[in-house]
Structures
1.
Amino acid sequence: MARYVLRRLIQAVVTLAIVVSLTFVFGRLSGSPAAILLTENAPQSQIDALNHRLGFDLPIWQQYLNYMGGVLHGDFGDSYRQPGVPSMQLVFERIPASFQLGFAGLAVGLLLALIAAVSIHLTGRRSLRTIFLGFGSLRQAIPDFFFGLLLVLVFSVGLGVLPSLGNADWRAMVMPVLTIATGQFVVYTRLMDNALSEQSVSDYTRTAYARGERHGTVVLTETLPNALLPVLTVAGINLGTFLGGLVIVENVFAWPGLGQLMLGAVYSRDFPVVQSALIIIAVIFVVANLLVDLIYGLVDPRVRLS
Amino acid sequence: MTTTASPATVAAPRARRFRITGPLVGTVLVGIVVLFCLLYPLLPGYDAYTQNLDKMLLGPLTDPAHPLGTDALGRDEASRLALAGRITLGIVVAIVAVNALIGLVIGTSAGYLGGKVDTVLMGWADVQLALPVILVLIALSAALGPSVWLMIIVLAATYWVGYARVARGTALSLRERDFVIAPRIQGASRWWTARKHIMPNVAVQILILASTDIGGVMLLTSSFDFLGLGVQAPTPSWGLMISEGQKYIRQAPHLALVPGIAIFLVIIGTNLISQRFTAEGSALFRIAKKGKRA
């Protein structure tokens, strides 16, 4: 087990190093930020001073080493637009709001998917599956940003019961959470339904039926635990996409999270802020997948011994 | 345990009839939207640019000259929809085509010629999982400024992996077939054989995959347009029209609804068409799906 953990840890560090290096490359593609930060006819001395302050006058390999060194010391550079404010500080201020929304959306989506998949297999009704997957196909054909607008149209404009933006109270959370949850519902209902179907024809299930167990008991205690393992893996792999999708939902509902911060930084060309946000997202992705793999290793001896 | 709840019943495949009507309905839906975008600009009432401040935010079906109403500047919504549709669909088809072509060439070489290409291909897919397209596009847009070309380049550079995987898998399976080995014995070069005998067979699979991919790519590009990372105003696109419509969602909800419905029809249409292929070649699609996540 110790070797397995060590190997995964090294892998995680390498992935992070690659992502951090990529953000460095992205940042240098545009050259010096003087054209964005200074007025058009700024004197050359001013441009040189800025380049010197930001380290853009050094050779590229030295810039890279300085940058990586800074990252290791927790220095991710100051925001271009708010001089003196560390970009990472701006990112950290937004994390709680994003976490709240993302966690609620994912939890509700997974719960709904679990209920749907289990109810299909408990009742054994094919019509239930047709309804759930039919709803899923319709939902999948609607981009998140448009689904959010449809909700606004119904609940804010039409019924006037929910606020269309901000994160003032729990009512403001309903529509963004619904947008995320229904999107996740589609993915995970299909996944859990498939996994349950596969498990339901396996030998141990047949044995359970042969012992005279009731159908409900077999589904809930025998097949369901095994069917949930792939969900864990897929959720881990999908986390990057999920966090990317959060950007869109936050933007529709003016939710003051990480995604809105990043888009704002794109419009104002504040690269260090985007850079710090990307690094944080990569860290979240890598740590979550590390946890998933370690849990897998604990549960499944085949993984940790391979 | 009741008879209806037997595992075999629950695991039964989808009804056969749906597999035929689905693609048919899908083709009709996509066809309606595409024909509208192509033909509406030929009608005499077409004018996507003239502003008319006397007729701002008209609802649909209120003015015979503007069947779908007007936008905040009094421009004809139906004309805007057709023009934006041409641009949106054009970009989507271009992205899918470029990706399919790159994937075809790289995947076939990896599968048939093997070696280093193979290793790089598989490694690249893993990096992509940690850095989804939208985050890469955000980072590059922050560095270089958002533009439609940046979006197209980013999507063209990242999305081909799915095609490459399918091409590689198909090429691998063809490698040892007689009609591939025979010309080699007669002295044909590896490249010639790959081009003449492997690629045409792989291309069929790629074409199927590409046709089913239109919906997914449309979902991505319209999201990027909506966020301001793709097509830039004043050029219209469906995603951009929805983002403009969001500002007038209370006075004139049709401004967001009309382009939204167009996007919905295209995506659901292509998804319905692809269901036939996902049912028939599910193994193919499982390989493909692994390599491409937004």
2.
Amino acid sequence: MTQETTAIDIDWTACQAHGLCAELLPEHIALDEWGYPLVDGTPIPTRTVKRARRAAADCPVLALKLTTR
Amino acid sequence: MTTTYADVLMPPRLLAPGGAPADFSTHEQRYGPVSYGDPAQLLETVAQSGLTGRGGAAFATYRKLVSVADAGRRTGRAPVVVANGAEGEPASRKDKTLLHLSPHLVLDGLQLAAEAVGAGEAYLAVEAGGSYLEAALAERRRDPLSVKVVRVPRRFLSGQSSALTSYVSGGPALPQYQRPPVRERGVHRAPTLVQNVETLAHLALIARYGADWFRAAGTPSEPGSALCTVHVPGREVRVVEAPFGMRLGRLLPLGPTGAVLIGGYHGTWIPAAEAAQLPLTTAYLGAGVLASLPADHCGLAETARVLRYLALQSAGQCGPCLNGLPRIATAFQTLATPGPQGTTRTDIARWSGLVEGRGACHHPDGTTRLVRSALTTFTTELDAHAAGFCTATVRTPLLPVPDDRS
């Protein structure tokens, strides 16, 4: 069995730069000069997955997606 | 009007000799009938041919066909096939020319692709010339699947595959978030094959004459030929058919100075002397545009005009593209004007990094490719502008840019 890895994906057509994701997941997401998320692209460690799910659920426009592969 | 000199570089494959449109009976006399009924054999032949997509991405056609067919089986939904003749690239005319001269090759290819993936619906998407193609469709009485012509808005991004499937489904002609991808969920949420019309025309010939025939042109790693739209100042725009591997210097006159834009407005500027020795390859062929820029024209001014157009053509849906492209375009206009540049070059580099890979489609990525190649190819001109003068003597704009209202 290979370990499933969780990563962050942004639906750019939905994102409106609310910036909540950067507050909830500061170690993975920063904001650019216009307020849009800059995702570091590294896999989310198991201990952070729960918080990442919350960040995805809390995005006001549900633009933050978690992908597993 | 576009002229074609298909016979100059190779025996014509896709473009009818003599430049006269082929009706269905002329088409059948010329190429013979196409036979349906063995999709497995067809897929095998396409795999051996090494055909790749001619819409810009050069993805292996066989792999695309198989993934759509698989998605159809997995989801239990009959796939949809869309022939993409939208050609929103202002400098490209090859798809329009092909659809005008050889509509039935494209329509044969559309039927074959539909058979290969087990499609239940087929569409042909174009910007213009819809009635002409409907008349061509009416000539064909033995087609297994009926084809609907869809007229898409004249915009740069209308031909982007997710924009196209959205529009065919009754939505806006704008790029969509692509998870799952179009090949799994496209038109009416069914697995969808979006294939450029030139690719389909090649497919129609491969089905008739086989993989070896197709591979007789081109190189072992990049077999076959491609249609190119060639822009040379002072001459009519030409659509030519050329084999992969042919030196670009044979396709258009490239002197010791000046530059050439390869691939279109998402493409790459290359110094003419260097480009003359390069082979025609999918690595930068893009939409098939080759435009030469003599040294007496300003490459920075040309790029600035194109960037302004590209920024206006942003769908405005994705924040980085919406914010970044107009800033890049405005800053580039500063570089195109002789005078102090301040921090403009570093601003452009930073914004380019911020828009790249951060959108639903590749519009920002293609735009920054053009920006970066311009900054590399026109360094001498950049320094001249910084010093307050321009070496260009001719100010007439060369690259076609539609007016702002479109």
